[in-house]
Amino acid sequence: MRNCQQFSLMAILAYLGPGTACAPLCDASDPACGANEHPAADGATFWYANRCDACHCGSAAGGCDLNAPDIRGASREELDANLRFEPPCIGNDCESPGPFEAHPLKRPDASDQDIENLDAFLWTRLWVAQLSGELP
Question: Would 32 be classed as within a structural domain?
């Protein structure tokens, strides 16, 4: 279970954007700094390193590229299906997995941990939007 105080700190750091959210929050050589101690910050690193913000905006609300959807709070399954896998096809008839269009820039090399971290980061985007009053 995620510590609420830690989650709030991660949401604030993720809200501040690149350079802040990507900074290490503990020394990896320190045994107290466990693997994936800060999934939202690691998700922000993935987000900005892969330039997701170019289309989905830093807030993940979409619209920086007119066709990019709002993906704040997207499920792990949707992220996985849209980022790593091609939609199922029968002949020339392909269907998109889930409610979003199949992502045009696939990341088949993304690990399960990358998807989990990205999910944590996107939930901070939703949390910040709700906290700021942008979303109910």
Answer: no
- Could you tell me the end-to-end alpha-carbon distance of the chain, in angstroms, rounded to an integer? 25
- The answer to pTM > 0.85 is no
* Average predicted confidence (pLDDT) for the chain: 74
Structural domain total, the chain:
1
Separation between Cα atoms, residue 109 and residue 118, nearest integer Å: 14
Host domain of residue 41: 4-24+37-79+115-132
Query: 89: which strand partners?
Result: 94
Domain assignment of residue 107, yes or no: no
**What are the pLDDT digits (tens) for 14-40?**
555 444 443 444 555 555 555 567 899
Residue 130, pLDDT > 80, answer yes
Question: Measured between alpha carbons, how far is 75 from 23 in angstroms, rounded to an integer?
Answer: 25
Query: Measuring CA to CA, which residue among 6, 9, 11 is closest to residue 131?
Result: 11
**What is the spatial distance between Cα 22 and Cα 30, in angstroms, rounded to a whole number?**
18
Spatial contact of 98 and 81, defined as CB atoms under 8 Å apart: yes
